[in-house]
Amino acid sequence: MSDDDEPRGARYVRYLWLAYLGSLVFQPAFDPDAGPLDWVLVGVLVALFLPLYLAVTRPRSDRAVLVLAGAMALLGLVGSLVNSGASVFVIYAAAAVAYLEPVRRALTAIGGLLGVLLLMLVVSPAPMPWRFLALAPAFVFTVVVGAVNVVDAERGRTRRRLRRADAEIERLAALAERERIGRDLHDLLGHTLSVVVVKVELAGRLVPLDAERAAAEVHDIEQIAREALGEVRTAVAGYRAGGLDAELARAHRALTAAGVDVDVDVELPALPAAHESVLALAVRECVTNVVRHAAATAARIDGALDGGTAVLEVTDDGRGADGPEGAGLTGMRERVSALGGAVDVTVADGTRVRVELPLAASPPVPRTPTGPAAAVEP
């Protein structure tokens, strides 16, 4: 009968149900042979019942509910020997056991209470047919109240399961968002800081040799830092700026600054925003790895449409890697996989990263191919 999820005002409704104890007064009120003792017995029955009722309406274990409901039914059985209205105690017991779990246990308990009513029908001292007329409402209301409360209990359990499911969904969504932010910050700042480090080292070497070139590199570092700041702001807002063309331009500039000869041959049509963003981040991650780890002298970025699949390849002649994949490559795989694509990494006389990203069934809109000349535009 207790439900932690009931509205605050509903918890007081349980006290209104005590009005049905009025059935105990019918017999002494309408029986011409009733005397003061019958009224005293009504008071005794109510006094014995109230603690049981108040206890069972508080959150209890199923075992405690069964014990309290059994005590109510026993009180009703004994009380029916002196007052046929005591059968109301069985109805209260049915309302309590209806909240047992699972539902089968609740229905079994209600069936047991109906058995108690049958026993009352046998032992009641009232003559027939008055005995049957007195207990018939108890049979009806035990079934009705028990069934209604079983449905209410199941509805309450369903609400609780839905709330737990909603809470779990929110928790998983927050976890996924934290992982997404971590991947995005790695891709945004990892690449940019790698370029900044390379250019700072280059500027430091140029200061005693070519001050004008060193100043140009410092100016370029400033521009890269400003672009990174803008990208972080747009990432926080949930957007990506620049697209694949801009990323290819940054890649060409970063590789050139690191002393890597780069050839860009990307001929892709206009892609959906999500696909273009994934490919742009793939280019960024690959170029970051070339600048940081590959010790390469040459690199190549190729892109083309193969049937309904956009294919992007980044290759270099560096030393490759034989350890576990880092967070950047793992994040790339997750993003590509989310769009139904695949990432293949081959290490042999350098490294080749191949990204295959299937497109939607509708044909993409042609755009001006992106080649080396376009890539070097700032």
From TrEMBL:
InterPro entries: HATPase_C_sf, HATPase_dom, Sensor_HK_TwoCompSys, Sig_transdc_His_kin_sub3_dim/P. It comes from the Bacteria. Pfam families: HATPase_c, HisKA_3. Signal peptide: none annotated. The chain crosses the membrane at residues 12-30, 36-56, 63-79, 107-126, 132-151. Residues 274-361 form the Histidine kinase/HSP90-like ATPase domain. One of its GO terms (molecular function) is kinase activity. This is Sensor histidine kinase.
